[in-house]
Amino acid sequence: MVIGIPRALLYYNFFPWWKVFLETLGNEVVVSSKTNKAILDAGVKNSVDEACLPVKVMFGHILDLKDKGVDYIFIPRIVSVEKNRYLCAKFLGLPDLVKAMLDDIPPIIELEINHYKGERAFDREIMRFGRIFTRNIRQIKEAREKADRVQGEYERLLKEMTANDALRILFGAHVSPEKKQYGMKIGLIGHSYDIYDEYINMSIIEKLNDMDCQVITADMLTEKQIAQGASHIKKDMFWTYGRQLLGSGLYFLDEQNVDGVILVTAFGCGPDSLIKEIIEREYKRRNTLPLLCLTIDEQSGEAGLQTRLEAFVDLLRLKEAVGR
Ligand code: SF4
Prior knowledge:
Rossmann fold; four-stranded parallel beta sheet
């Protein structure tokens, strides 16, 4: 079978697992094109107005796969990727939303990723999913082992790489290899689909590199560092990726190991509007590290982004020059 995978949302986190599992069971995997104007426009036109920008982009990628000769489109229902934490409601209902909104697309196959229910339930779900392609249980187990191995390697690489190299090597971006030395370090925090999709963020990592700034993302921090940052808030944050944003933002603030922090959020994201508020308040209260908050939407213009980044980097340089 030919299975289409949309290059959107948690594609940036879990694509290696999905691809290896599906291919090991004898399928061919086709990925949608990189995000472009046609994909964004189609997504905006065919999804609900209330959806956040990344979900609209997802719709555009699903439509892009329509003409790529795929037999099925893979849309996971991602409920929870770790114990005791959830993802935002958009991930939970994504296959239903797509079925309700889009006619005339290839049939959808779903995998429920839900670690909240415990590992045994997840094992059973993988078996159910694997049986769509083969009745051979041993083959499904082997595919899972191989996919787990490759995913582990991918996550290790993402931690070790610079943001620029991750873009270039893992996501095929046309950016130049990482320089050895930069004048400044910037913490860039945001969801993977906001900071690694070059079209919707207008190549923010490359722009910062061109301004002589090295970029450190939340993916490069350890769980211990993220937990340190997140511990400043009394109540445990139950959204996995929201906690990653909050934890990395407050970790940078604690350690002062970057010259400034940029927080990228998407228009229409409920969880991010809350997290942004908490981060902004804490940065304002301590007043020790500059923070720039950027909200991207379908109307965002490149010239405006460039101006804001340049102004922010100029401010960091001035701060360094006057020694405060
Ligand atoms: S976390 Fe925010 S940006 Fe991501 S899918 Fe949910 S609402 Fe959209």
